[in-house]
Design a protein that fits this description.
- A hairpin with a 7-residue loop joins strand 4 and strand 5.
- By secondary structure, the protein is an alpha+beta fold.
- It is 28% helix and 37% strand.
- The N and C termini lie far apart (42 Å).
- It is globular.
- It has one domain: 3-Layer(aba) Sandwich (Trna Endonuclease, Chain: A, domain 1).
């Protein structure tokens, strides 16, 4: 069954991405973190690195596809939300942080392509 609403599609895409990241050796430690600054889709550990993952899904690759939808404004919101998370949970402060994007192209209930962009953007 195909998820109908944007929220349902987003949740399904995040579930696909979390399974993909686990299959590639990362440990998922949080999902769907919200604060006034923004939202973080997934937070993982990749060995000693805290990884903030933005998940984007598009049914088609028109207009640059899923990865191109991570705009400058979206990156700034993610960085602000990650800063809030990093400050709030002191056990993660000593770890380096990186920002990744998981881009899913195609239907979630059928054949889709997954692109994992490590170090997709930085705080600088």
């Amino acid at each position: 069954m195909r998820p109908r609403s944007t929220t349902q599609r987003g949740a399904a895409a995040e579930t696909v991405a979390a399974h993909y990241l686990r299959a590639h050796g990362l440990t998922v430690i949080a999902r769907n973190l919200r604060c006034k600054a923004g939202e973080i889709d997934i937070v993982c550990l990749d060995r000693e690195v805290l990884v903030v993952v933005e998940v984007r899904q598009r049914g088609r690759a028109d207009f640059g596809g899923a990865s191109a939808s991570v705009t400058g404004r979206k990156r700034r919101r993610i960085i602000r939300a990650a800063g809030f998370y990093w400050q709030r949970f002191s056990q993660w402060r000593a770890r380096p942080m990186r920002f990744d994007v998981i881009a899913l192209e195609g239907p979630l209930d059928g054949q889709h392509d997954i692109t994992w962009i490590k170090h997709a953007f930085s705080t600088a």
